[in-house]
Every structure is written in structure tokens, then in C-alpha cells.
Write a structure and sequence with these properties.
This protein has helices spanning about 10-25, 30-40, 50-65, 65-70, 70-85, 85-90, 90-95, 120-145, 150-160, 175-185, 185-190, 200-220, 230-245, 250-275, 305-315. About 60% of the residues lie in helices and about 0% in strands. It is elongated. It has about 325 residues and is mainly α. It folds into 2 domains: about 10-95; about 120-315, no CATH class.
């Protein structure tokens, strides 16, 4: 539909009075288009087009409830507007919100969204690896605690289908394999999840698989900045905390690591804003606060664990 021709205040007032005089009831047809055509044929105002009648009549029906419900013809007409004209249906809201009638046109595509990188690529990898270790340990401990939820046949079948094959005791299972196993047998574990979001445990695990594990394996480097901006690092921390809680793992260490990451990001942003040369990327992260310095915060585990240490932690 073409944009309605602009009417001055007097012309619009005269048109409104005419449309509310009973002419609509007397000339309603079988559909909206035929009704507008009939009204246009009767209108004596030279500057009024069909589009103008359509727009003004729609405004009257939208804003004047008494007129809208006064006659059966008006109710029918209002129904036609609602069915065929979304723009009329939303006109009052557009007016309240001050939304432009037409979409703005951009001569060029928008620039890419800028993200903040407070850490060097090597630091980013160390931070993500630390949280992945938390998740991997909690996933394995969850499987050990709930071993009675699955049969040896189910475990063996899953292991045989995996590439590379997974041992029956999951000794060589990585984070992705354990996530896939729990998701595959979600019905077996539905009563084993914990926390206030236990009903959404599979969604939490699926999001972690997509946003953290897969990003770690397949994420695209963003120039020399690395692949993990500050927002994504915080997302890793938050989702690792969510995974830990829904699996019933010990949350004190991962909560402490998240606290330290948030603190480091804030400090670096502030330092870079006030004195950029004094705090270049790649400076050493401060240690996570201990119980002696911040109540309730525990020193996080080492970023790397050898196989013997990992197996011992999983047994406890």
C-alpha cells in the first residue's frame, strides 16, 4: 500500500466527521477493499485518496471504542482491519512508542559488534581450561555416583558407537563423550539432577556443550585478540557453575574461580581506561582469594591435573 497523502488538520477533521456520519454503515460491502472503494467513490474531498480513507478509518476504529461498537457494520469492519492490516492493529502502540511509520534505510551494512578482550590468547586458553577441568571432574563424579542408573549393556553400546571407542569404565572418556552420554540417557538420570534448575538440566548440559566445549574445539580466532572475549569467558564461568550445581558437584571452588575472573576483568578494564600503558595484555592474573581474605571463597584447583590426580579426585 502506498503511503497515505498528508492532510492538514482541517481536512482530516472534515474527513473524520464524514466517516462518523453513518456513511460507513450505509455503504459496507462484502470485504474491506470494496468498502473503501465505495467510500472513496462517494467522498467529495478532492485530495482524499483510497489510502487516506483506509488510514483515517483505521485510526477511528482503533482509538474510538464507542464508534467501533456502535453498529454491527463497524464491528465487522474492525474485524476486517484486524485480519488484513497488522499495521493498523499496531498503530496505537506505534504512536505510544514513537515508532517511525517506515523502516529506516541503511546505505551500508552495520559494522561488526565490538567486543572487549582483557586477556591475551594464552591467558584465555588457561582460563577456559581451568573451568573445563571443573566440568570434566564433576561429569565423571556424577557418572560414578549414579552408576546404577544405567546398565552395562547401555554403557558398552555407547562406547562401541563412539569414535574413538570408549572403555566400559569410561577411563578414556573426555568431556564431550560424558556430556553426550548423559544427554543420550537423560531419562535414566532425571531423578539424579540437583539444584533449583534440575528440571532444565539437559538444556544446561546442551548449552555447555555448544557454548564452551565446541567453542574450545572449533572456535574461530578473532584476529590477534584470540577467540574468547570477556563476555564469552564470563559465559564459560557461569555455565560451568550451572553444570556443577545441576550435577550435584562441589561448587565452592568453581564459584571462587568465577569470582576471581569477574574481579580480574573489572580491574583490567579500569586500569586500561585510566592508564593503558601501565597494564598491557598478558600481565599475570592475581590469585583467587582464600578463606582468610574473602568469606566463602575457596582457592581454585590447579589448572592442570595429571591422570593419577584426576582419578583420585573422581573417586572421592
Amino acid at each position: 500500500m502506498h503511503r497515505p497523502q498528508h492532510l492538514n488538520r482541517y481536512q482530516r477533521k472534515q474527513l473524520v466527521i464524514w466517516l462518523q456520519s453513518g456513511v460507513v454503515r450505509q455503504n459496507i460491502k462484502s470485504d474491506l477493499r470494496e468498502t473503501i472503494d465505495a467510500l472513496h467513490a462517494l467522498c467529495t474531498m478532492a485530495t482524499v485518496t483510497k489510502d487516506v480513507i483506509h488510514s483515517v478509518l483505521g485510526d477511528i476504529l482503533t482509538t474510538n471504542e464507542i464508534f467501533r461498537n456502535k453498529q454491527a457494520a463497524h464491528v465487522t469492519l474492525w474485524g476486517w482491519f484486524q485480519e488484513s492490516e497488522v499495521s493498523v492493529f499496531n498503530k496505537e502502540r506505534r504512536r505510544i512508542l514513537g515508532v517511525c511509520e517506515t523502516m529506516p534505510s541503511n546505505s551500508s551494512p552495520p559494522p561488526p559488534l565490538q567486543h572487549h578482550f582483557s586477556f591475551s590468547p594464552r591467558e584465555q586458553g588457561g582460563i577456559v581450561e581451568e573451568f573445563l577441568n571443573f566440568a570434566e571432574r564433576n561429569l565423571f563424579q556424577f557418572l560414578v555416583r549414579n552408576a546404577n542408573c544405567v546398565t552395562t549393556t547401555e554403557v558398552a553400546s555407547f562406547g562401541d558407537k563412539s569414535r574413538p571407542k570408549i572403555k566400559p569404565d569410561f577411563a578414556n572418556a573426555d568431556t564431550l563423550s560424558m556430556l553426550n552420554f548423559i544427554i543420550a540417557y537423560k531419562d535414566n538420570y532425571k531423578t539424579s539432577f540437583q539444584g533449583e534448575n534440575k528440571e532444565n538440566a539437559i538444556e544446561i548440559l546442551t548449552n555447555y556443550k555448544k557454548n564452551v566445549r565446541n567453542q574450545m574445539a572449533h572456535g574461530v580466532l578473532q584476529g590477534t585478540e584470540g577467540r574468547w572475549n570477556d563476555y564469552m569467558l564470563q559465559l564459560v564461568a557461569i555455565q560451568t557453575c550451572e553444570v556443577t550445581v545441576c550435577l550435584g558437584g562441589s561448587y565452592t571452588e568453581v564459584y571462587g574461580a568465577k569470582y576471581q575472573l569477574d574481579k580480574d576483568i573489572i580491574e583490567r578494564i579500569v586500569n586500561n581506561a585510566t592508564n593503558p600503558p601501565s597494564k598491557p595484555k598478558g600481565t599475570k592474573r592475581t590469585k583467587c582469594p582464600t578463606e582468610d581474605t574473602v568469606d566463602g571463597d575457596i582457592h581454585p584447583p590447579k589448572k592442570q591435573k595429571d591422570d593419577e590426580q584426576f582419578e583420585m579426585s573422581a573417586e572421592h
